[in-house]
Structures are given as C-alpha cells and as structure tokens.
Amino acid sequence: MITHIRPAICMIALFTLLTGVIFPLAFVGIGQAAFPFQANGSLLIRNNQVVGSALIGQNFTAPGYFHPRPSAHMGPDPKDASKQVATPYDASESGASNLAATSKALLDRITASAKDLGGAKIPADAVTTSASGLDPDISPENAASQIARVAAARHTTPQAVAAIVAGATHEPLLGFIGQERVDVLAANLALDAAH
C-alpha cells in the first residue's frame, strides 16, 4: 500500500510546488521585467503622487471635470451594515447591477440620470453603467455633451476643452477592434494642467 501512496504524495508535493509557487513567481517576474507599468496596476503618477490608474475609472463629480459612466457598485453602509449604499468606482470590487432591462429600479435610475442631464439627445453611456462598474472611458459623444459645462466651470472656451478631448481620445485597436473612446482621467488631468 505504501508503494501506491508514496508516488501520489510526491506528485501532490511536486505539482503544488510547481503550480503554486514556481509558475506564479515566474509569471510575476516576467510581467515585472517585460511590462512593469501594466504589472503594477497601470498607475498614473503626477508630482510623485499616484493620481489614479489608467484601467480603473474614478468618480469625478465637480462641474469642471468630465464625468465618467455611472457606476452601479453598492457596498455596506458604514453607519449600518444591514443597509447598502452606493460605492461608485470602488476598485476592491467589480460588477454590474445585474438589473434586467425591464427592471423598475433600473428604469427609474436611468430616467433620473437623464432628467439631471437634461437635453434632448443623451448618449447611452451617460446614463448606463458598464459591466465592470469601473470603466475609465466614455464615448466621444458623451464627452462632447459635457464640453459646454466643463468650459463654463473652468472659464475657458469650448474649443480649448474640445482640443483636450481630442488629445484624450483613443482610436480602436488596430483600427477596428473596439470603439473610439475618451480617457476620462487623462482628459481631466490635461484640464488641470491647462487651466
């Protein structure tokens, strides 16, 4: 019996060491050597201070900034753990609201958001959340709909703000994978630098 158990135990130990220690350390080392920016969270640093990640959206709400897509994150209320409160862009979690298209709560939230934004034509990503709830980008249409507000709050011209949006706009990968998008954090950092 020991002749059958010993090889099994040796194989468990070997594969635990191989897949639980050696492979992960090798991949971390390769990632750090080949892609250090990405392997460390794609952190953006200004004046020796981390201002955000290129991959995770932030909750900008001031009128002088471009606002990201809404985030559906909910977390425990610090005052009462039995209740849930909005925790937009909490990077410790990721996920959508999982509300159906016919959900009254979803329709009420979208209607309220649309009413707050006003205007006849509102871009879909201005009132709908992304699947992760952490999307750092918005559509060019969403950015264009915010230019007048940002320019007025910063006491500058819409043309100057539009130029900043153009600089923060990314084309689809290889020209056809994905969609054109505006990096909200990059646009807001450029606004701070310019105004």
Describe this structure in words.
The chain has 195 residues and is α+β, with helices and mostly antiparallel strands. The protein folds into two domains: 2-39; 43-194, no CATH class. The chain contains six helices and seven strands. The protein has helices at 2-34, 36-39, 104-117, 140-154, 158-167, 184-194, and strands spanning 43-46, 49-53, 74-76, 84-86, 137-138, 169-170, 181-183. The strands form three sheets. A three-stranded antiparallel sheet has the order 5-7-6. Strands 1-2 form a two-stranded antiparallel sheet. The longest helix is centred in the first third of the chain and has 33 residues, at 2-34. The radius of gyration is 23 Å and the shape is extended.
Count of strand segments: 7
C-alpha-based Rg, rounded: 23 Å
- Secondary-structure-derived class: alpha+beta
SSE order:
HHEEEEHEHHEEH
State the separation between the terminal residues, measured CA to CA.
78 Å
The domain count comes to 2
